[in-house]
Amino acid sequence: MRYLAKPLLFFASVCAASVLHAQSFDQIKLVPNDANSIAAFAYSLDIDGDVAVISAIGQRKVYVWERSAGVWQQIQLLLPEESITGLSYGYDVAISGQRIVVGAPWTGQAPVRPSAVYVFEKNAVGWNRSAKLATAIPEDDDAFGSSVDISGDRIVVGSPSVDVNAPNVGVAHIYFKSAGGWTQEARVNASDIGAYDNFGNSVAIDGARVVVGSPGADNGSLTLNFNAGAAYVYEHINGIWLQAGKLTAPTIVGGESLGSAVAIKGDLIAVGAPSARVDNVSNRGAVDLFERGGASWSHQSRLHYTGSPDNVGYGRNGLAVGNNAVWIGAPQLRVNNTQENSVLAYRRVANSWIARRYVPFDGAQNAFGTALAISGDDALIGASSDLLGGAAYVLAPSDSIFRDGFETIAR
């Protein structure tokens, strides 16, 4: 069944004064056939074309949904095919074409709790596990797989709690699929990261370009820039992964946690800073946009919702990038003292960013926007603490301004 929802129109603080007329869009709610109150369904999700992958971390389950003739149906449950004692299977998921990646950090038993990433591929009979990725030497609580993304034959996996001469420095692993299977191409970090920087807390990949968030980065000054955060860009050049840029806010401010979420599409990168101070309001949250010009990356603008109070979750989790468009989850948003958990869809027109705010058609106000992915005309939005144990919403904007070739991006 299709439902009519009402998008709310406003302008970002970086926008010029221009007018876009709100138009209708279709919104569909997805709930698994075995839903229960502890499932945490839609904790993580991704979408590529007519296929969506959605995790229920509370039950250690990952579901595959497919759309046929305009109808979304739950078609398969992806399981790791081995006993998992932890509660982290499905902590992050990603899809690209005929491959699905499932992160499972903290899956073993103490004292060493090895983590893993499971790869599923589609064949004539459905989705089947094809590989299990793990570090050569498992480390206790390394959080390997807490962030994952896939693009074609490459997978990037964050491991933000790895100790590298200091606690919780973090690394990211890049894998490539060849005729012999999946092999690790690189294990990257940055020369200037240090203790508790949590490099790899978020990852995203687009072709031969990877971006890694490091929300604990102090950027050279533990006193002034504690947890200011940063994101790092890597490119595959002549068979080697090289750091191509470091992204920071134009004014580095301690405590902003820039890099909590990252997204990339071509030459546009979005980086979430959920604790950013905006208009003298602490912890309001913002998303910084960076663009590549020539061989370098530069800050383009900062997006935020000016009417919100603090701690709205803006830039913490749900974040996706398309062609001249950015989608941002605001799962704790309040408007005029009323809870209105939302997703903001920004579209660039000339040098301005114009946004529409979407709310769930059924009025559910439980973490709508905590997870977010886009593909084509569709946005897939998670509400993992919905009263029924979680739900996912598919939004299909009918306004042609959003019909510009979104690709699937990790949350």
Protein model, in words:
A hairpin with a 2-residue loop joins strand 12 (147-151) and strand 13. The chain has strands at 3-5, 8-11, 25-30, 41-48, 51-56, 61-68, 71-78, 92-96, 99-104, 116-123, 126-133, 147-151, 154-159, 171-178, 181-188, 202-206, 209-214, 230-237, 240-247, 261-265, 268-273, 286-293, 296-303, 319-322, 325-330, 334-335, 338-339, 342-349, 352-358, 368-375, 378-383, 391-397. It has 411 residues and is mainly beta. The chain has a domain at 46-328: Integrin alpha, N-terminal (Methylamine Dehydrogenase, Chain H). The strands form eight sheets. The chain has a five-stranded antiparallel beta sheet with strand order 1-3-32-31-30, with no helix packed on it. The two termini are 27 Å apart.
Q: Largest beta sheet, briefly?
A: 5 strands, antiparallel
Q: Average the pLDDT over all residues and give the rounded result.
A: 83
User: How big a fraction of the residues is strand?
Assistant: over 45%
- Helical residues, percent: under 10%
State the helix count.
0
CATH architecture call of the domain at 46-328 = 7 Propeller
C-alpha geometry? globular
Q: Tell me, what is the CATH class of the domain at 46-328?
A: Mainly Beta
Rg over CA atoms, rounded to whole Å, is: 20 Å
Measured between the Cα atoms of the first and last residue, the distance is 27 Å
Strand order of the largest sheet: 1-3-32-31-30
Query: What's the number of extended β-strand segments?
Result: 32
Under CATH, the homologous superfamily of the domain at 46-328 reads Integrin alpha, N-terminal
Question: What is CATH's topology name of the domain at 46-328?
Answer: Methylamine Dehydrogenase, Chain H
Structural class category: mainly beta
Q: Uncertain runs with pLDDT below 50, 5 residues or more?
A: 1-24, 398-411
